[in-house]
Amino acid sequence: MLNEKNPKRSNLFFNNLLKEISEEKNKKSNEIIYLKTKTTCTHLSIFVKTLFLFLLVFVSGLFAFFLSPETISISAMTKIGILSLIQFFLIIIRCSKKYFRRIAIFYSLIEGVNFGFILRLLNYHYSNIFFISIIALLSICLLFIIIHSLHAYNIIEVNNKTRIFLSISLFILFIIYVLQIVFLSKSLEHSFLGLLISGFGLFIACLTLAVDLEDSRYIVQQRLSKEYEWRIAMGFLITFVFMFWQIIQILIRLGFLKEREE
């Protein structure tokens, strides 16, 4: 009888031991997965960082709007020009992984100040700039939903050709804006050609948004470090702000803004 019971007890002991080992292995596996989700990129974390950068733009923009002078002056235009150059420099150096977070936060603060200055100048000329700004923000939300859906269903595919086309288009757009500022600013203000330029700029902004969405998906799939989330969040911020100004320019050239009476 003892010989018959001992094998059963032995099997029961080993079964319990294997069960405990399996549970411990699953527990460690779950802990590893949890740690990975805390240290690697997620879509939710990218969204939170992007929202945080937008809040920085909003707060610093409010301060700049209410503290800046109403009239156009050389000093005001100089400030806008200097801030724009700083922003351009930060965009170039944002590839530095070590300073992703600092660069993104600093850029957002400068973007907000510049945003406030420009809106103040527009408010000096136009009486309904806030209403038009709300229309521009709603348009951005609609465009984001459309581009996100097209990208999610692979209707818009982002590849190397897309990125090359985007780089060339941005360079062409930059040259056009420089020429517009130096030579043709007044002649293009309400012209059909100016409207085409702004429409092309909005198209490029939508294409840039698709690239940002693809980059976001890539860093999440590759489980890259969370530091990369700041770069993607900053990219979304740059794209949305660029999109906002293109829509504002289109509305100005279509005559939606009402000039103030003297």
From TrEMBL:
Superkingdom of the source species: Bacteria
UniProt key word Signal: no
Signal peptide (UniProt feature, chain positions): none
TM region positions: 46-66, 72-92, 104-123, 129-152, 164-185, 191-211, 232-252
Keywords annotated in UniProt: Membrane, Transmembrane, Transmembrane helix
Protein name from the UniProt record: Inhibitor of apoptosis-promoting Bax1
Origin species: Candidatus Phytoplasma pini
